[in-house]
Specification:
The chain is an alpha+beta fold. About 20% of the residues lie in helices and about 30% in strands. It contains three helices and six strands, in the order ααβββββαβ. Strands 1-6-2-3-4-5 form a six-stranded antiparallel β-sheet. The longest helix has 13 residues. It starts with 20 loop residues before the first helix and ends with a strand.
Length: about 120
């Protein structure tokens, strides 16, 4: 596992069709673990399609009982678009329409009622 370098991501811009939170998590996960989680953003990226994709992807990831460095943080709120970030040593790297943030979990997850942590399944 390589160390996360948050500064590498700070110049990236959110775009609902070209670069979403899933795209950034894919890039960061690949950088630190060497594992490509693949393209997880449905096209078009509607609220319904994003919510359905999260449910469909549950078999690709292991639900963790507690945060582990690194892990994928899935944040959900009823009737809202799910949001993801990369958990790293108590902080979350994530991208929103306002830009990239590397902030404490409590700040990144503000406004979400459900926060879960995930890892990729080991290769067979």
């Amino acid at each position: 596992m390589k160390a996360l370098q948050p500064d590498v991501y700070l110049d990236r811009s959110f775009h609902p069709e070209n670069y979403t939170c899933w795209d950034m998590v894919r890039d960061a996960w690949l950088d630190v673990t060497g594992v490509d989680i693949g393209d997880r953003t449905p096209h078009p990226a509607t609220v319904a399609a994003l919510r359905a994709r999260v449910e469909a992807d549950s078999g690709h990831f292991v639900l963790l009982a507690a945060p582990v460095t690194p892990s994928i943080v899935l944040m959900r709120q009823r009737r809202a678009v799910p949001h993801v970030g990369l958990f790293w040593r108590g902080r979350v790297l994530h991208i929103r329409p306002v830009g990239v943030r590397f902030e404490r979990l409590v700040d990144a997850s503000r406004g979400f009622s459900q926060v879960t942590f995930h890892a990729t399944r080991p290769a067979h």
